[in-house]
Write a structure and sequence with these properties.
about 180 residues; alpha/beta; six-stranded parallel β-sheet
């Protein structure tokens, strides 16, 4: 893994709670690589949670057909759009927080990302450049922390989960005195 990373892809394209639990690891990653642009792939269900997060430079919204039902035609069209966006980002490193073989293959290997780190939890370990053990019965935050520790983030650099709001959301709250 290069010492100086300029573009990092992080994948957690599933549900709101899982995405919230991934945010501390992303904050630690940005602290370790402040110059890097962090692109975060998340689902449409969780996108509002990451909008306005100062540690994420680009959000790609993607509902993978292996998690969300859709027609084959729609799945192909959406994948091609995401594929092109990932390629355009020229990422040197991809971190998949789920360890899902489909994420690893379709979102990191086929897009040409040279360094790929995740767990050997659902197959696809042979597609990774660094395979992490997946010990059972750990908290979800701990799994995310293990992934970013693999690229030099220190455990004590991982904060508690936080959600940031956009200026528009802040105005909305102030106008309604919520």
């Amino acid at each position: 893994i290069p010492k100086c990373l300029t573009n990092i892809l992080v994948i957690r394209a599933d549900y709101i709670g899982d995405v919230i639990l991934a945010l501390p690891a992303i904050e630690g990653l940005k602290g370790r690589y402040p110059q890097a642009k962090i692109t975060f792939i998340t689902s449409s269900k969780a996108q509002d949670i990451v909008m306005g997060n100062p540690f994420i430079d680009k959000v790609i919204v993607y509902d993978p057909p292996w998690f969300f039902k859709k027609s084959l035609k729609q799945a192909i069209r959406e994948y091609l759009k995401v594929f092109k966006e990932i390629r355009r980002r020229n990422c040197e490193l991809a971190l998949d927080f789920r360890g899902d073989a489909r994420n690893i293959f379709f979102l990191t290997c086929l897009t040409g990302i040279p360094y790929r780190i995740s767990f050997a939890s659902s197959g696809g370990w042979y597609l990774l450049t660094k395979v992490l053990p997946y010990p059972p019965d750990r908290h979800e935050v701990d799994y995310h922390v293990e992934v970013v520790k693999a690229v030099g983030v220190k455990s004590n650099d991982i904060p508690m989960p936080r959600i940031f709001i956009t200026p528009e959301e802040e105005r909305f709250i102030q106008e309604r005195k919520l």
